[in-house]
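Run log, item B.
One chain of 463 residues. Sequence copied directly from the ordering sheet:
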Amino acid sequence: MFSINPLYKSYVTGGASKHIKNISAFLGQSGHEVTILCTRSETNADPFVWSENVLVKPILPYKQPFPSPYSITAGDLAFICETVNIHLDGSDKFYIHDGEFLLPFLHEKIPTIISYRDNVYPESILGSFISNGDQIIAVSRYSSDVINFTAGRFFPELEDRITIIPNGIDFDRYKPTRTQEIAKKLAVDISTDVVILHPHRPEIGKGLIQTIRVLELLLRKYKLSNVKVLVPEWISEMASTEDRSFYKQIESHLDQKGLRDHFIFHSWLSQELMPAYYSLGNLSLCLGSFVEAFGNVAYESLACGTSSIVARVGVHRTMLPDNLIHKVDYDDIDTAAEIAYQIIKTHQKMSKDEIDNIKPYFSLEKQCKGYLHIIENCKKEKKMDYLPIKLDINTTYKLAPWCSIGNKGIYHDFRNKYYDDPLLLKTFQTQGQYINNNDLSILGGGEKVLSNWYQETIIVPVW
């Protein structure tokens, strides 16, 4: 297995490392011998046993901290190639976790499974175009659609190689939990404080600015006073210059607004503490523009009985039905604050029945068995043929899977903006899913308008 993220014996750094741990452990328990090659860090360079039959070797000299892991010397890249080649020699299968292994010539002769955990970072995007996996796993229908309507426009066989396996949640671990100890650790008074969780790493797209704006409305419009927002600090050795700069900007902003006393910045927590952490919250906020391919924390929070409010960005639009999670259009702070206030006012927690209703969407057993089946049965396929779609006057288009109709117009996930063009809205509100040049001409547009929408990636061609 390959992970471009560093892995640690005693804690996980996010959803990607959490899931490779679950998947590798299940493979090990099923009798397979698993070796995971991952990026080394300043404090983590020695091999360690992660679970039964699973050995982690943090030896690859990718750049740390993120981003730009391939910003390394030619000598380091050659070492990576040699190391991976040595380990693949004699191995049965190669599993790439998150599609960021951009050296496809190394796995031309071994059955290779690629799991895409995001559709945002450059390495994952490029990987979806060049990696040529024999089997591909997407963590959501949304993620699968993004791959199919981008790389799939040039490699039509790609769609047949994709299997959708949603991330699972361990409901034996993630469940309503006693909070006295975690409250004491974080200096929260559970008898008086209203606790809002912002359980994300310090990336601007993860929504901390939106969380602050919701807090301001709760304080000033809804007259709450005892609100505490919990924000984890990123692991120091993984914090980039941009991460540190962002935190300093946030701290300065909070000081200027007089909001600092309402925020508790705490150290990164172990997975063992997360159920109590989620249970401690009155609600969790996931209001950022980051285009999640899955978005673990919103759903782990629900499993622990704490309501989540998510922005309709990326997978959050469709991962759960609207009756099982609170959704707002991106940057609709007024609606988010109103929902937050109602949750707080009514002391709303997820009922047992509500938690039971989300369980079928996040089966950990189904996830692990799905990976096991694909990995065990993966065979070497021929290289996919390059057959790009031919665009002409008769090409049919549809609204891109990363675009959606909202109250402010058509929202584009990857550009983080709304398009309020009346003709664009009219086209997809009245015409249906598909559009071509002739349809648009009837509505008052033409070839130039269609070309502009295409270049702006609001629409995508279909076969």
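Observations after the first pass:
- The radius of gyration is 23 Å.
- The chain has three domains: 2-168+369-377, 180-361, 397-461.
Flagged for discussion on Thursday.
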